[in-house]
């Protein structure tokens, strides 16, 4: 008996897709290893796909040219591939884009089921952004896309509540993101200067947006460095990421570095440089006000890096296991967290590092998460009467 066919459909599989692309990649690789489904990935083709294809291993990938805004990606080729697909079930990663319309058209033609993976895109603050455009997309097709979904793969119970605020009867299953154990890198990242070798490196990694708490982190860093010149001398704050509607970020970083000489923004990091950047850090700092489930925290843990994070990161396992320290969202709380991390000795760092790696292996390994996703997809096929 042949395996049921699964199409994973998303906007981008390259670095341009950010965390959504990374989760789609991990899901595809994990499900191939799990073995229940015949997995195919379908996306648009952008300028970074060719250099990122090696990250997809032997996965079957179909990518198509697009036009229009990169956030929407109108692709006739993708539409036809999805519409005529022989898939038994589809999983849609990400909302508010053209690929969701294609999957809805396939469902209306075939009656076959699909699962939506919103990636936090139904959070209230997301719905408030670009309201006019979102209302138009909702009226054109997305309201029906949400209504017809056979299930929702959400990251947290908080995301389940966001979905049910729109669809009270929605079938939601909370499944965390997966991350594999990482092998040690044999080199430092390009941004790592000689002065950093004697400093404890605090890393902020990912999209730099107001909701991520970058401003509170900068304010906390300024206060702590002014208050404790020893902390300033033995510490380095590094921002790795791209700017998202934060016009004053570069000025703030430049002012801090001019005063203390220990703050830098080194831009987004990908592939090997990303792994080296995480490994070069002593502590990851994420003072977010709102998150789905941040992949970068899992990636830091897979490298054995302790984390300072807020409860908004939705990873309470990190606090319980000793892999993370809870901080608040305001600057005084971030100051307290940084000061506590500064007091950690090497034995505490080693203990937190071991706890981080153990937590990833127990709760977030590709095999564990792939099994949970496979169970959800199989249950959708059973409920739709299409199980083989």
How is this structure best described in words?
The chain is an alpha/beta fold and 388 residues long. It folds into 2 domains: 5-178 and 365-383, Glycogen Phosphorylase B (Rossmann fold), CATH 3.40.50; 194-363, Rossmann fold. 46% of the residues lie in helices and 15% in strands. It contains 16 helices and 13 strands. It has helices at residues 18-34, 49-52, 76-83, 98-110, 124-128, 131-148, 157-166, 214-227, 229-234, 249-260, 271-280, 295-302, 316-321, 331-343, 346-363, 366-383, and strands at 5-10, 38-44, 60-64, 89-93, 114-117, 151-154, 172-174, 200-205, 235-240, 263-265, 283-286, 307-309, 324-326. The protein has a 7-stranded parallel β-sheet, with helices on both faces. Strands 10-9-8-11-12-13 form a 6-stranded parallel β-sheet, sandwiched between helices. Strand 11 (283-286), helix 12 and strand 12 (307-309) form a beta-alpha-beta unit. Helix 1 crosses helix 16 (366-383), helix 8 runs parallel beside helix 10 (249-260) and helix 12 (295-302) packs across helix 15 (346-363). The chain starts with a strand and ends in a 5-residue tail after the last helix. Pfam families: Glyco_trans_1_4 (PF13692), Glyco_trans_4_4 (PF13579). This is Glycosyltransferase. Its EC number is 2.4.-.-.
